[in-house]
Kinase
Amino acid sequence: SESRTAVLLEPFVHQVGGHMSMMKYDEHTVCKPLVSQELSFYESLPLAMRQFTPQYKGIVSVHLKKDSLGNLTLIASPSLQTESCGRLDNAIGDSSVTIWHKCKWAASTGTGSEHAFVKWSHTQLTKTFKDSCPGKMLLRTDLQYRTDSLLEDANRNQPERNSYNPWGLHCHRQHLNRMSSKHNENKLHQFLLLENVVSKYNYPCILDLKMGTRQHGDDASEEKKARHIKKCEQSTSASLGVRICGMQVYQADAGHFLCKDKYYGRKLSPEGFRQTLHQFLCNGNHLRTDLLEPIILRLKALLSVIRKQSSYRFYSSSLLIIYEGQEHKENTAPLDNHLRFQKPNCTTSHGTTHSRVDVRMIDFAHTTFKGSKCNHTTYDGPDHGYIFGLENLIKILQNISEGK
């Protein structure tokens, strides 16, 4: 049927880090360009690690579409390969299909099917995002994002404030441009289908941490290797084994998200890292102390698992810490234009119930392990650089918990 043959891929509005575009396939599923080394990791994932990674759902074919105006979109074509590689939760008749039909049939009065894709086109993406069918489903009217030093233009001008995290759209535009310049429309690209780990959150607060003391993969060129080593040396990757790659945290007092990008994270000192971690747990009114214990417990559980994974090296992978930004009864008053988002002093709130939190490892394009189809080098023992980062992260959170 029509609903099974094409899904219009949308930019994933909660992408806070990375350089590759993450796309939304349906409410519970995201997709990204397939890298064989990452596929190999998911196909042979140790059972103990599954609770700390997104569920792998299969592979889908994707092609670029350009309309008569030159606008670009990505279209996924579900196939039998998708079915055999893993179950797509509620894929049939769920949001991917309804979004597809809304976008498709909303333009049925046009002269051709190509007009169905105009709203989510490359050139119009930013200005029509809030007005699109999927945009309205994704965004709340009282929700806005703070865009600190994010995405300055060539003249170092700040972008206008938008009601979404601009990083994902930045990656999406770059990705479409790369695909368009390198490939023709008929070429099919394979994308990985993965669980959308923030789909259950209304106001997902997300911290993207690049883990480990080494970031380059075994296959990196000498130039890339030198570049990554320099980034590590000049950031907290060397001193702490972890650095911030992106963040969005809901500010309850303002009804905004505060966003930080990877460039901000690279400049932080160890003390700046600690302060940003504190900021991630601060909702503008108070420090969310109710989150500290569950996050620390989950990080300790992950640490225990990583210590037992011999030969694995998670080069350039990230760790997401996620929590629900909306407390039981949020006062989402409209934002006053002169209001500052970053409160220097957050009072402490001692919650009595543990809020739902999550910790997930992502991005395994450079992960290597014994027996991998793409294995270049075999290592012994666990990934000590990753363990070093996890131990420091836990220590800093424990210090915050103790008021240090």
